[in-house]
Amino acid sequence: MPLVRGIQPDQMRSGGGKGNEDGTNGLFTLRSNADEAILKSEEYRKLNGGMIAFDGIEVSGDDKQQGGIRKFFKRIKGTKRPVIPLESIEHGSEEYPIIIVVMGLTGAGKSKLVNDYAEETLAVVGDKQASQTKETKGYGFSIGGKHLILVDTPGSNDTVGSDKDCLEGVAGWMAERYKKGTPIAGVIYLYDASSNRVKGSMRNDFTIFQKLCGPDYFRRVFIGLSHCDAVSAKTLEDRTQELKSLLWKDVLGGGGSVWALTADHESEARKVDVRELVHFVAASHLLGLDSSRVTGPLAIQRELVDFHMTLAKTEAGKELRRTLAEYLKHLEERKTGTYDTRELELQMNQIRRDLEKMTSLSHQLLKALALI
Ligand SMILES: Nc1nc2c(ncn2[C@@H]2O[C@H](COP(=O)(O)OP(=O)(O)O)[C@@H](O)[C@H]2O)c(=O)[nH]1
Ligand SMILES: [Mg+2]
């Protein structure tokens, strides 16, 4: 099954119509039979304002392909996605909204994705280092007769102090939805494709993320590559191949997928538009709801709500604690031989406090959940 959606740059150059070794047509590439069925579904058509993606695109030449895709994205961009207040969604409708959570490290482009989807500035976009997103926050849309909530989250970061707050915020938000009975349609994990090596923080963050989801939820994980415009096609392809075989192996093996994203198809015809991905996640969830393949909960939701665990006891919580303890050890080692230790001491105290607080604060979380 093809796993990287949207990047087969060489195929573009060599002309359409030819199959890749993975059986795809070399353009948008995702073409397992199941994917194809989703793209052709009534659900997908409705979300896209009555148009099936790639409608009328015959794979018979680059010009024609590019023209077709431009036409499609012009239409999808021209289709209104009205922003509506969350309260009116959460309290006002009989049907569950389609919830899609966007996660990933600080600077990955989560808030930008929300804005690109809305085609207006809803979330505050930061720079690559400092997170501007302090809380887990949903943005409501009315689309194709459905309510959709895109959830922006604060990403974790190299400054370890904030990781506990991030996990707690997201886990709490998810637990609350589960308690209310609303499924989470999918999680888009954004990954900055321009960062030139897999930093320790990325490895840890993805491991914690995996534990948060649990293997049963991997097929609802959509890894989105952001910052694709900042790397060459060759680098993007090489990097993705490496990540697929190492860091993302388990998630992909469990049914997850990778998508190379762009927000602007005027200039870039090889990647997947953020709107298209969001609608694909939504449509595949809706189709699943009509069959036995219902979107189940994330591991963290069951752990917190069904098993009444504190955050520290959950798999994601344990992984975070392990990471924090390891980092603490690293700082302690650095301290020996450092003249001015004030800065290090501050960091270390912060981590110690976080490790302690993880248990007491999650008791508060459990109490809050009990009231729902
Ligand atoms: N060139 C480029 N910049 C991006 C992309 N996605 C995000 N950015 C920039 O990266 C920075 C961080 O984005 P933001 O959405 O705040 O990241 P967040 O911390 O994940 O919410 C901002 O300056 C964005 O404009 C992308 O795909 N390409
Ligand atoms: Mg943000």
Structure description:
The chain is an alpha/beta fold. The protein folds into 3 domains: 4-76, no CATH class; 82-298, Rossmann fold, CATH 3.40.50.300; 301-370. 47% of the residues lie in helices and 13% in strands. The chain contains 14 helices and 9 strands. It has helices at 9-13, 33-39, 42-47, 62-78, 86-92, 110-118, 163-180, 200-213, 233-245, 249-253, 274-289, 299-306, 315-335, 342-370; strands at 4-5, 83-84, 98-103, 137-143, 146-152, 184-192, 221-226, 257-262, 272-273. Strands 1, 2, 3, 4, 5, 6, 7, 8 and 9 form a 9-stranded mixed beta sheet that branches. The two termini are 41 Å apart. Residues 1-31 and 54-65 have low confidence and may be disordered. Bound molecules: guanosine-5'-diphosphate and magnesium ion (MG). Magnesium ion (MG) is lined by residues 110-111, 126, 131-133, 152. It comes from Coprinopsis marcescibilis (Agaric fungus).
Keywords:
372 residues; alpha/beta; Rossmann fold; 3 domains; nine-stranded mixed sheet; 14 helices; 9 strands; 13% strand; disordered N terminus; binds guanosine-5'-diphosphate; binds magnesium ion; GTP-bd; GTP binding; G domain-containing protein; P-loop_NTPase
Topology:
Layout (H helix, E strand, L loop, with lengths): L3 E2 L3 H5 L19 H7 L2 H6 L14 H17 L4 E2 L1 H7 L5 E6 L6 H9 L18 E7 L2 E7 L10 H18 L3 E9 L7 H14 L7 E6 L6 H13 L3 H5 L3 E6 L9 E2 H16 L9 H8 L8 H21 L6 H29 L2
Parallel strand pairs: 1-8, 3-5, 3-6, 6-7, 7-8, 8-9
Antiparallel strand pairs: 2-4, 4-5
Helix pairs in contact: 7-12, 7-14, 8-13, 13-14
The structure holds guanosine-5'-diphosphate and magnesium ion (MG).
Guanosine-5'-diphosphate (GDP) binds next to helix 6.
